[in-house]
Write a structure and sequence with these properties.
Blueprint: E1 12-16, E2 22-24, E3 30-32, E4 43-51, E5 57-64, H1 73-77, E6 83-85, E7 89-92, E8 97-100, E9 109-112, E10 121-127, E11 136-141, E12 153-155, E13 161-164, E14 175-184, E15 194-201, E16 209-210, E17 214-220, E18 228-231, E19 234-235, E20 248-255, E21 264-266, E22 272-275, E23 287-295, E24 306-316, E25 324-325, E26 329-335, E27 341-346, E28 348-349, E29 361-367, E30 374-378, E31 385-389, E32 400-409, E33 423-432, E34 439-440, E35 458-461, E36 464-465, E37 477-482, E38 488-490, E39 496-499, E40 518-522, E41 528-531, E42 538-540, E43 543-547, E44 555-560, E45 572-574, H2 580-585, E46 586-590, E47 595-600, E48 608-617, E49 625-635, H3 646-650
Parallel strand pairs: 6-10, 9-15, 17-24, 26-33, 43-49
Antiparallel strand pairs: 1-4, 2-3, 4-5, 7-8, 10-13, 11-14, 12-13, 14-15, 16-19, 18-22, 20-23, 21-22, 23-24, 25-28, 27-31, 29-32, 30-31, 32-33, 34-36, 35-39, 37-40, 38-39, 40-41, 42-44, 44-47, 45-48, 46-47, 48-49
């Protein structure tokens, strides 16, 4: 039976007035619910179509008449087969008669899958009303006939009888689209081809199959009834729009059965599992095992096919204990100008399950650090808070910090817990004064002077500044560190620079009209600072090799600074923003104060020679930085990570070292 609404969008549910005898599927197919004898008189019942949204209902009466039993081959041949006639109409326009194709829709042929035959099984007869005057030949084309899969449908060329030769499987092919042809004995087309659609009607020949045989889910202890746990899903290869493919779920068993044998329930349509009883306690039952059943035919236990799967539900810990500091005050100290130094360890206790969000501590500063010079990291193993300096501290500006800190868990405390959600403590940090080197302003200093200046002429005066205001030191002393042509001298007390020889622009020591000399300022401590026209850090090595594919073969590099501590390491390593290809192709990671690793960021880089600039910054005050270029040979490698194309790349210009 079929129902067609005016707007074509209604969702219809079919019903039967005799549900114990006849059932109507969602696709309109009428089934016998039991075996029974039909009388010779037509059996009547009512089929209803109800709009699922508006509940509006329509009815029609069905008369069911038993087919007469034919005996003998001749009588069987007389069984009525539907005729499909090539559509046409004739009209008279003067003369003779002419034919004109009409718009005609051939109703689809519905054929159940898994038919037992016998085969070939007759379906319809294709014929033309011109077979009365002409000898015609019929044929059928399309997938299932003369195209793969071939031979499923055949046609008698004389009678036009269309037959199916084997059982069909809807899960493989749900419909066939064929085209029927009629020609005369000479092969001339006498009719326009007609389209024939054969729909394969679904039968319930597939069991539901769960996507996983074992499903894992979690639920927090103390969850209220109605808490969502997990969703299990099964699929059915049968038609999902018919009852054969409509699944229903249910729980067959629960283990263990405490504190109640029905701690969970399942939505029979969606497979959602939720809690239905209170009393989940991780300390008593840590895990539940459910056996879930899926049944098609909308869960009909008589006609539906079933399958089962296992749902394992783990009861998780909740945060019912906050972290607590082991002391009210912690102490630490740090030398000035040092960064990435741990100055204090904060310890806490927590009674929740270790290494879970309810146990893991998070620390934060609540006061005493307005400029953000400290941070607190969490040790993942001990759960301690590591107070670390992230910005240099100047003893002359700040001699002590008193920080207030708080510790709380990664997740909030469970509702109803009477403890405060966090614990607080104080951290007292003392800054240690160190002897800082003097510095020149400006540095480097540019002096313009014509050549030929006589010896003994005064050029300029350098005045260095000492940042140490609280150390008792003598005045600064000046000295010469580098003077290639020996043209200059500096007064050790006042920093006045005078010439000791005639300045000559054509000297080999003058490059691009520039002569570089370096002078040193010292206090009576251990640190010094020199002023020069150019300053540079150096990389070791200057050349390196790596494979062209992304693999663990990083290049270890070391920064070298002519300064001494604290104006040398630890160093910061960075890649420049330009050109963009540098950061796109490479990445650099600092592994210690003086060392870093350079490696590929992308999966593949073509073999060749690459210049990789690296920006290095020291820890001096003020910071000094420079850019060094590392020449990298990218090559093809064997399975051991050794280059296999050395000769080709070395020929391109990289040294054999």
């Amino acid at each position: 039976v079929r129902f067609r609404s005016c707007d074509g969008n209604k969702k219809i549910h079919f019903g039967s007035s005799e549900p114990e005898d006849f059932r109507v599927g969602e696709d309109g197919v009428v089934y016998a619910e039991r075996s029974f004898q039909l009388s010779a008189e037509p059996t009547e019942f009512v089929v209803s179509a109800q709009d699922k949204e508006t509940q509006e209902e329509w009815q029609m009466r069905v008369k069911l008449t038993p087919e007469p039993a034919f005996v003998g081959a001749s009588e069987k041949d007389q069984k009525k087969i539907e005729d499909i006639i090539f559509p046409w109409q004739q009209y008279k326009h003067s003369s003779p008669l002419k034919r004109q194709k009409r718009d005609w829709v051939i109703p689809p042929i519905n054929l159940p899958e898994n038919s037992r035959g016998p085969f070939p099984q007759e379906l319809v007869r294709i014929r033309s009303d011109r077979d009365k005057s002409l000898s015609l030949r019929y044929s059928v084309t399309g997938p299932g006939a003369d195209q793969p899969p071939t031979g499923i449908f055949i046609i008698n060329p004389i009678s036009g009888q269309l037959s199916v030769t084997k059982p069909l499987d809807r899960e493989q092919i749900a419909s066939f689209h064929l085209r029927a042809h009629a020609v005369d004995v000479n092969g001339n087309q006498v009719e326009n081809p007609i389209d024939i659609v054969i729909n394969v009607i679904d039968m319930n020949d597939n069991r539901p199959e769960f996507l996983h045989q074992v499903w894992n889910g979690t639920v927090p202890e103390g969850s209220k009834p109605g808490t969502y746990v997990m969703t299990v899903t099964a699929i059915d290869a049968d038609d999902p729009n018919a009852q054969n493919g409509m699944l229903r779920y249910r729980i067959l068993s629960q283990a263990p059965s405490s504190p109640s044998p029905n701690m969970f329930t399942i939505n029979n349509e969606t497979g959602d599992i939720i809690t239905v009883a209170a009393g989940l306690d991780r300390e008593k039952v840590q895990q539940y095992t459910l056996i879930i059943q899926a049944t098609d035919m909308e869960g009909n236990p008589t006609y539906g096919l079933s399958n089962t799967a296992t749902a394992v539900i783990t009861v998780t810990d909740v945060n019912d204990n906050p972290p607590e500091f082991t002391a009210m005050t912690f102490y630490g100290e740090v030398p000035e100008n040092r960064v990435d130094v741990i100055v204090a360890n904060l310890t806490v206790t927590d009674k929740d399950q270790p290494h879970t969000p309810a146990w893991n501590a998070m620390y934060r500063m609540t006061g005493g650090d307005p400029t953000g010079r400290f941070t607190i990291l969490t040790d993942p193993n001990s759960n301690d808070g590591l107070v670390t300096v992230v910005k240099p501290i100047d003893f002359e500006t700040n001699r002590m910090f008193v920080l207030t800190v708080a510790a709380e868990n990664q997740v909030p405390l469970a509702k109803g817990i009477q403890h405060p959600p966090q614990s607080t403590a104080t951290v007292s940090i003392t800054v240690i004064d160190v002897n800082e080197s003097p510095y020149f302003v400006p540095n480097p200093k540019l002096v313009r002077q014509e050549e030929g200046l006589l010896a003994g002429s005064m050029l300029t005066t350098f005045t260095a500044q000492d940042p140490d205001r609280y150390m008792q030191q003598t005045s600064l002393r000046y000295s010469k560190l580098s003077d290639p042509a020996n043209w200059l001298k500096i007064d050790p007390v006042n920093g006045q620079i005078t010439t000791t020889a005639v300045l000559d622009r054509e000297s080999i020591y003058v490059q691009n009209n520039m002569y570089n000399a370096t002078f040193l300022a010292s206090d009576n401590g251990m640190y010094q600072r020199w002023i020069c026209f150019q300053k540079a850090f150096f990389l070791n090595p200057k050349e390196a090799t790596t494979c062209e594919t992304l693999q663990p073969n990083a290049i270890n590099i070391t920064a070298v600074d002519p300064d001494i501590d604290p104006n040398a390491g630890p160093f910061a390593f960075e890649l420049p923003d330009t050109p963009a290809s540098i950061k796109r192709n490479w990445t650099i990671v600092r592994i210690s104060g003086d060392h870093a690793q350079l490696s590929l960021r992308i999966r593949f880089l073509e073999a060749g020679i690459y210049d990789v600039p690296i920006v290095i910054t020291d820890s001096g005050n003020p910071h000094a930085s420079s850019t060094s270029v590392l020449k990298v040979k990218v090559c093809q490698c064997d399975i051991n990570g050794d280059c296999t194309d050395v000769d080709r790349i070395v020929g391109a210009g990289l040294g054999t070292g």
